[in-house]
Amino acid sequence: MPLRVLPRPVHLVNEALAFLLELVAFGVLCWWGFDTGHGPAVHLLLGLGAPAVAIVVWALFAAPKARFPLPMPAVLLVKALVFGASALALWGLGRPVLALVLAVVALVNTALAAVDREALTTSSRAAR
Fold first, then answer.
1. What's the pLDDT score for residue 117?
2. CA torsion sign, 85 to 90 to 91 to 97?
3. What is the tens place of the pLDDT at every residue in 12-60?
4. Are 21 and 105 in contact (CB under 8 A)?
5. Could you tell me the residue range of the domain that residue 65 belongs to?
6. Assign residue 4 a region: left if phi > 0, alpha if psi is -120 to 50, beta otherwise?
7. How far, in Å, are 11, 53, 68, 78 from residue 56 at the CA level?
8. What mean pLDDT comes out for the span 70-96?
9. Among residues 125, 128, 79, 70, which one has the least CA distance to residue 105?
10. Residue 33 is assigned to a structural domain of this protein
11. Residue 126: its pLDDT value, please?
């Protein structure tokens, strides 16, 4: 059985939190888009476009079953861009405390997941 850094219950909670954070990030981008700009067309374009772009980028490069799997540093960069954009969007919406909370929780969650996955990958390679 592959070794993990995190105990299984912690791993499962961290993975569930990661999924929740992704949904929050996309929702915040949607909220920001509908609140930004002037006129219904701009609101609609940004409100649907910002999260759509983030979702496509995430699915292509950062998701566990990404269409184009990248090395871990590149995946972390994509995640930082999406979570960073969401935190900046919250800041722009006048919610600096929520922006900071989102950024910190996403950072800790992503760091734990990356270390755990790296341990799993390393132990899988060693078993071969």
1. 77
2. negative
3. 999 999 999 999 999 999 999 999 988 999 999 999 999 999 999 999 9
4. yes
5. 52-127
6. beta
7. 26, 5, 12, 11
8. 96
9. 79
10. no
11. 47
Measured distance CA(91)–CA(112) in Å, rounded: 25
Structure tokens at 21: 């954070």
The domain total for the chain is: 1
Q: State the Cα–Cα distance between residues 118 and 95, nearest whole angstrom.
A: 34
Residue 19 covered by a domain: no
Taking the C-alpha atoms of residue 10 and residue 42, their distance in angstroms, rounded to an integer, is 42
Q: Would 12 be classed as within a structural domain?
A: no
Chain centre to alpha carbon of residue 39: 29
Cβ 14 vs Cβ 116: under 8 Å: yes
Q: Residue 61 corresponds to which amino acid? A: F
